[in-house]
Amino acid sequence: MSYHGSCWKARVLSLLSKWLVMMLIVGAVSLSPLQELPIVRANSQLTIDSHNDGQQVNSGIVVISGHYTNIYDIKLIVNGREQLDTHMNNLSGTETGTWHTELDTSQYHGEISLVARGLNSESRYGVTTPTKWINIANPSASPPLVRIDQPFDGAQVEGQIPVTLSVYAINPIQTVEVRINGGPWSVAEAVYEHYEYNWDAENALNQTSSIEARATDAFGNIGRSLTVYVKNGEVMPQEIILEPQDRAIWIWEKAAYNLFLNPGSRTALKAFADDTSTFDSESVTTFYLGVFPYGGVDILEEEPDRVRDFMAWAHDNGYKVHACIAGGTVPPYFGALTPYHELAIREMEKVINYNLSSSPHEQFDGVNVDIEPYILPDFRLQKPSVQLQYLDIMEQLIARRDTAGIPLPFGPAIPRWFDSNEPAKDITWNGQTKWLSEHIQDMSDYITIMDYRDSAEGSAGIIAHAQGEIDYANLIGKPNSVIIGVETLDIANSGDPESITFREEGRAHMESELDKVYAWFNGNSAFGGIAMHHYDSIRWLPSAWGPDGAMWTVTSEDVTPPTGVSVNPTATPFDYQSINLSYGRAFDDSDVEEYVIYRSTTPDFQPDASNVAGQSRNLTYKDRGLLPDTTYYYKIAAKDISGNVGPASETASATTFSTTLRPMIISEMNIIHDGIRSKVTLKVCDYETGEEIIARVYGRFTMNGGKYVELAPDASGVMFAHSETLPMASGEVGFWPQRVLAGDYYWATAYDDPRTAAVSWSTL
């Protein structure tokens, strides 16, 4: 019999004794049940043990495995192109054990890289393994290598031009093709040991043209060349004119692809961008628009007309749009490393090639580059290796723009400390020793400082952290070249302090602080405006949390529900407690805000509020905290920005795997506010018996709160934690459990009762 209600009563002394034993196993601590837990400091470690460097591996499913100590949420990064979830085998409840994942090597041939990455149990910052290289023996997956030999990159051409190609392949070649300026692919003919395509350059007179080539082998593998840029006739250099970008906003792929593929989403974007009255704010004039492949679509390569349609709409409405790219890798910061530079170059070339193939009214107005190399551990540990590789790729990306000869402003996003912290100090590159920020400013047209703080003034404020870059921009004569970025994202799950975001304070406080930034830099020629991160988070940021706060709403309100999903969901079990879902996009006459995931253990269930498993902004969802050996049934429905829910999909089902671990749940979670701060209390129980058990519980406060805590038992055995100091007059705070650990148990979070807790107050 399963237990769903309150936990059974248990003896307090027994619980405290168990808790003490568990803490002593993890590390020696000074215990007082009425005080907050002392910090347990332990070194973290993560390894890949299953394979040696250079080991030969056959094609098929290969198990990659290793050990971890004081680590959670481990991913395996494969060749900088995909990131796999892992199975973490942990019986002790201490975030220490072994991990493994299954890698399908059938898509690879030759040498590939493996890096495991997890989060440190204490700091919540990333920990990575050294790179392992393995060799896959799978010739049938080897794509051809293609190179354009003639004409040379940057050449001047005229008349009939033979485009000469070299193709190197293990497998028989089926076709070799060339395209000019993003046009149709045309067949190149084999001529002795190379391939040749005759191009009439007179059809592209007085312009720069892009030349690309590809080869397809007998197994369907496609290899692509890098782009060659040539000029035909009188191609006059065009000056890059950098206009102010106030305000700018980042729009990542989740929202960007809605804008491309669901034109109704643009009504919400325009309403948000033009709204200056709700929060007494500046209007948004510039979009940093994510264009990396998403949801199985490479928008610049496969659907450029969709991008052209959006760009024309944006320009018709007075907006500027910068393509936002990163390293062409997963995760993006791998693009800083030399082995992955070609992937970053290809991302830049896609933007350049798109512009060359589009009318001026459809072209991007700039490119914003967000690689963030400092996330790599070697940025600090092996200075200046990563720093120099990062500068090299920045220089190469700019060189591609310059070779193409197009006036596309180039602007990297950099952290506020590239002019102040030791890892960025005294970087010698191209014969000059400078701060890393200064090298970047020297070569770039503009920078966007990730000046993430929740106050404008003071030594740690937004103004002080931007002053160095502003002063240097004035010194080198680059007006409008420093954009100051601010954060609105909920970052409390990371190791970063809540002081880097306006999430807890709300939009009214943010606008008040930004007024101070405007006042300070008003009239300074280097200041180019403020950028907000990002569209998906800030449009749901209230003026202030609590009963007296105001939310932004789209006007006019949409009353028509979205369509059903375009592809019915599929469900695949991942392990004993999680199932992966995927589904197609829905469409709406406004923005599709999220997808509602309905779950049941009954196949013919009716979707309603009682069986909502969660929501997703993506076209995928991982349902966690389930029971083992259980079949679950799912339906998906789209929800638009006004709250209308569309029709539910067909049913998908999957059955979880077996485990010897027992499910535990959180019960009796409650939160109160005492006028200064809030206190959360909860219990952890065996799901099946209801017996109260001792577990280590980590979580974070939400809304006005952002503090990440480990709970401790009070004198009665109830787990508790306090928030940071909260606003006295009005506010709202919740608690969101993150990690629950106990030996021989796993957290069946889907069955928590209750799943959330919040409290609001107002004395106004």
CATH level-four homologous superfamily name of the largest domain: Glycosidases
Mean pLDDT: 94
Radius of gyration in whole Å, from Cα? 28 Å
Helix content: 10-25%
Q: Low-confidence parts, pLDDT < 50 over ≥5 residues?
A: 1-41
Major beta sheet summary: 8 strands, parallel, barrel
Strand order of the largest sheet: 21-22-23-24-25-28-29-30
Domains (count)? 5
Number of DSSP strand runs: 46
Number of helical stretches of at least 4 residues: 12
Structural class category? alpha+beta
Organism: Paenibacillus lentus
Keywords: Membrane, Transmembrane, Transmembrane helix
Protein name: Fibronectin type III domain-containing protein
Transmembrane segments: 12-34
Care to describe what's here?
Residues 561-659 form the Fibronectin type-III domain. Keywords: Membrane, Transmembrane, Transmembrane helix. The chain crosses the membrane at residues 12-34. Pfam families: Big_7. This is Fibronectin type III domain-containing protein. With 764 residues, this protein is α+β, with helices and mostly antiparallel strands. It folds into five domains: 12-19 and 661-762, Immunoglobulin-like (Sandwich), CATH 2.60.40; 45-140, Immunoglobulin-like (Sandwich); 142-232, Immunoglobulin-like; 248-538, Glycosidases (TIM Barrel), CATH 3.20.20.80; 570-655, Immunoglobulin-like. Helix content is 17%, strand content 34%. It has twelve helices and 46 strands. The protein has an eight-stranded parallel beta barrel, surrounded by six helices. Strands 2, 4, 5, 8, 9 and 10 form a six-stranded mixed sheet that branches. The longest helix has 20 residues, at 385-404. The protein is globular and about 85 Å long. Residues 1-41 have low confidence and may be disordered.
